[in-house]
# Entry
Amino acid sequence: MKLEERWHPYWGPKDERLVETVNKTTRVGYAILLVGGMVTTYYAIMLDQVANVADRELLTSTGQGVFPVQNLLLIVMLLGAFVPLALQMREGVIDEHSRFAQAERIPWGYVMLVSLAIATSLGFMTALLRIVAEGQIVGWSQVAWAGDLAVGAVFFGLAFGLSVLVLAACFGSAIERRRKLEDQLDD
# Structure
């Protein structure tokens, strides 16, 4: 909370209409994640139950014809993230703070900063989790440290580029949509 309070002067005050819109779209994403997570968990339980009753192992050729639980979870997570984003863009909202909500052009400094934070998080997490996975599977003496760090660096680069593109597109779309809404109100 202290870190967020330090950024309030930079972000500017919150617009009540925008806060309401962001809250509404966030609730949609939360519902998708909650229900999707429950369905995914229930599906995983049913797979395990049927495999145990049939005395079959899922991690063998039997499980090859099964829709993977992690794919279902990935679909749920992507829907939970991108559906609210699409709803916000449709409303012409990208942020609830007036500094960015009223932007007439894309705030490139903010886009770069957020993209750097996203890319750093993903690159670090990718390298760390690959190292941990290798350590558990092949043993710590067999971990390809340089290769795992290189994979993390590649993911950093991809995440940075993609984040810049997506955030810029979101700001551009929200700015354009807000202008159209303002034009409709003027007529």
Remarks:
- The CA atoms of residues 93 and 168 lie 13 Å apart.
- Residues 13-96 form one domain.
